[in-house]
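README, section 4: Worked example with a bound small molecule

Sections 1 through 3 covered apo chains. Here we extend the same pipeline to holo records, where the ligand is supplied as SMILES alongside the sequence. The molecule in this example is zinc ion. Nothing else about the input changes; the structure line simply encodes the ligand pose together with the chain.
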Amino acid sequence: MTLLLIYCGVLGLAIGSFLNVVIYRVPRHLSIVRPGSACPVCSRPIAARDNIPVISWIVLGGRCRGCHSPISMRYPLVELTTAGLFAVTAWRVGAHLDLVAFLILDAALLALALIDVEMLLLPRSIVYPTLVAVGTVFLATAALQHQWHRLLVAALCSLAWFTVFFVMNLISPRSLGFGDVRLSAVLGLALGWWGVGEVILGFFLSNLVGAVVGVTLIATQKMRRDQPVPYGVFLAIGTVLTVLVGPLLLSHWHHWPST
Ligand SMILES: [Zn+2]
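The generated complex, written as structure tokens:
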């Protein structure tokens, strides 16, 4: 288990480094492959030795090797957060095939949350591949371990959450964007894999986090009442929380089989 956690943590650092590229380039419709990373100030290409997650940032003192302009703390923070998320998810899910789906979910939700905060956008080019990837891992798990019932529940939960949000979007398109509707299909699928209780809990926790943050921001006058909220952030937090502590919270009213 310790080995799995270390492996997932290190993998998280590398994926986090890639997410930094995704978070900046995808909403700006830039290629995530070309060109290679460069300093935004002096355009000096970032060499491989300066591209080691977290370590390079510390070695360089948070500054570009060429022009010494500061590099945002956000880069190492995203890398560390991804590593932490990957490690706790590995601890929660264990060494099973479906762990791959939940690591993909972690990475996608972190990228989407940060893009949503910055640009109020949940890019389709992240949501759809995530849906396909998570669905494919579940399909493979179902086929190999004869968990077809679990896959069916997950698919129905995905459809259910999507339908609820689709209707909410029809009623009030301003408070719930279609990006959230698309994302809900991914969340329903991933949480439905654990069970219907998890889906309801995820929905509840997302809105609870949203309400607490919203009320706090309005009360402290950091946000106006009519300002659009990055709802995707709350959905991401609520979903990750549910994956990690769902069985603990639900165990009071539901006996949870360990899978
Ligand atoms: Zn520079």
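What to look for in the output: Residues 39, 41-42, 44, 64, 66-67, 69 surround zinc ion (CB under 6 Å). The first helix runs from residue 2 to 25.

Section 5 describes how to batch many such records.
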